[in-house]
Amino acid sequence: MWNELIKVVNTYEVIIGWLALASLLVFLLSLLTIPYFIVRIPADYFSHHKRHRLPWSDQHPLVRLLFLILKNILGLLLIALGFILLFLPGQGVLTVLVGVLLINFPGKYRFERWLIARPAVLSSVNWLRRRYNKPLIDIAATGKGLDDNSDRFYHQKIDTNKVQ
């Protein structure tokens, strides 16, 4: 069994080396980009029941369409890369998650609100924002939080002051 594995590794040595290098680069890139984007999220972004107006919504329709297509292609590529990284050393799950958050699909904003409301996610995001002296993410700024009977994903309030 080990001899067969060594034979396969020797046969695909160059490909395995490139995949390992790509895995390392994606890991390093994620270490740099994720904090960058997390600290730029407005503190009240998730407290509204509808998505904020997009910054490029004032652009020409062709520019908006091009941006939307490129963003979705990047998201799909990250999902595919993340799936590959699930079987190689690297940030597979994280890469898939970033890809999913980039693509557009019905209910995406509700999913984002549900995801950020998970205590482990919210505390991690707010820990990072605290390190960069940014206001903490507020999921309950409207007074209702994420618990509005139309939101089937979330059915409990979270006191963001207690989340560390």
From the alpha carbons, calculate the radius of gyration and give it in angstroms: 20 Å
Q: What class would the helix/strand composition place it in?
A: mainly alpha
Gap from first CA to last CA: 48 Å
Mean pLDDT, rounded to whole units? 77
Description:
It is a single chain. With 164 residues, the chain is mainly alpha-helical. It has one domain. Helices cover 57% and strands 0% of the residues. The protein has 6 helices and no strands. It has helices at 2-11, 13-38, 61-85, 92-102, 108-116, 119-131. Helix 3 (61-85) packs antiparallel against helix 4. The model is unreliable at 141-160 (pLDDT under 50).
Q: What's the SSE blueprint?
A:
Layout: H1 2-11, H2 13-38, H3 61-85, H4 92-102, H5 108-116, H6 119-131
Helix pairs in contact: 3-4
In short, what is this structure?
The protein has 164 residues and is mostly helical. It is built from six helices and no strands.
